[in-house]
Automatic annotation (TrEMBL):
Residues in HTH cro/C1-type domain copies: 10-64
Alphabetical list of CDD domains matching this protein: HTH_XRE
Name of the protein: Helix-turn-helix transcriptional regulator
PROSITE patterns the UniProt entry points to: HTH_CROC1 (PS50943)
Key words of the record: DNA-binding
Keyword DNA-binding: yes
Organism whose genome encodes this protein: Tomitella fengzijianii
Record-linked Pfam families: HTH_31
Length: 73
């Protein structure tokens, strides 16, 4: 599993719902490229955007963007 895949679970949840990156982006009001960057771990969404993504995917922000063990200490 890559670092990006460990840093967030947006791709996993999006695929489970059979949504394209463009479809998810349209639902939350951002470009497909923004979704690509978020899934790849190259961009951390604002809290507001993270909440919109979580709502669109039927998940919580905590499920999509879990804290790393190091951050909990």
């Amino acid at each position: 599993m890559s670092e990006a895949e460990r840093s967030n679970r947006v791709r996993e949840h999006r695929r489970r719902l059979a949504l394209t990156q463009a479809q998810l982006g349209a639902q939350v009001g951002v470009s497909r490229q923004s979704i690509v960057s978020i899934e790849g771990g190259n961009y951390s969404p604002s809290v507001y955007l993270a909440l919109r993504i979580a709502a669109a995917l039927g998940a919580t922000v905590e499920e999509l963007f879990p804290l790393h063990e190091e951050a909990r200490r």
